[in-house]
């Protein structure tokens, strides 16, 4: 299938799933915890993943799905076409705030990001990219990221990590401002859109970053783990995603990583 048709199909699934989420928010839904009391999952997360699972197995039987809510156990490599899905990124925001959460899809081909779709469900902002064809926000093409001095940068952090890391504290002191949205996919999409200049986080899974990293590639952004190594999109890792000029300037501050 042509990559633009695949992108259109992925967008249509995401929009349908978003309608379902908004509808479910009118009612009570089940909330469970996973590894600890702050690790939330709802029936809505699970049902969105099931929706994608059914659609992909029916319409793309040769594609595989790596999703947060159970559809990842069998994925040990990224051979062929793999949909990397976070059915709701920012579940804590979804439950507590009823806004600031996203559906994130990264479609990879032999380990390379082909398509990124991130949809901010309540703010109705759709970030989409196709490899080699640029990234878009609600049909507006996102420009390549421009150089910017560190003292004019807006950076998003995992605050718990900043408390423990002297190098990051030095970055906080130098930048124009810091933010923390609690929704990795949107934070990476914001870096791609130039709304943020970097996003640094401590522990993210492939589904948190796949769609965002696909977008970043299309605007000249950089994404590695915190140590500057290539991301595998198979394991939990740190993330350092940034505008390329800001990446270089922050990197100089990370003396003990
Ligand atoms: C979480 C969010 C959050 C990040 C966590 C993720 P979830 O994803 O992206 O911003 O700090 O590490 O687990 O569980 O809401 O899909
Ligand atoms: Ca989760
Ligand atoms: Ca997530
Ligand atoms: Ca999730």
From TrEMBL:
Pfam families: Inositol_P (PF00459). Mg(2+) binds at residues 68, 86, 88-89, 208. InterPro entries: Inositol_monoP_metal-BS, Inositol_monophosphatase-like, Inositol_monophosphatase_CS. Its EC number is 3.1.3.25. This is inositol-phosphate phosphatase. It catalyses: a myo-inositol phosphate + H2O = myo-inositol + phosphate. Keywords: Hydrolase, Magnesium, Metal-binding. One of its GO terms (molecular function) is metal ion binding. Its cofactor is Mg(2+). The lineage of its organism: Bacteria, Bacillati, Bacillota, Bacilli, Bacillales. Coiled coil: none annotated. One of its GO terms (biological process) is inositol metabolic process.
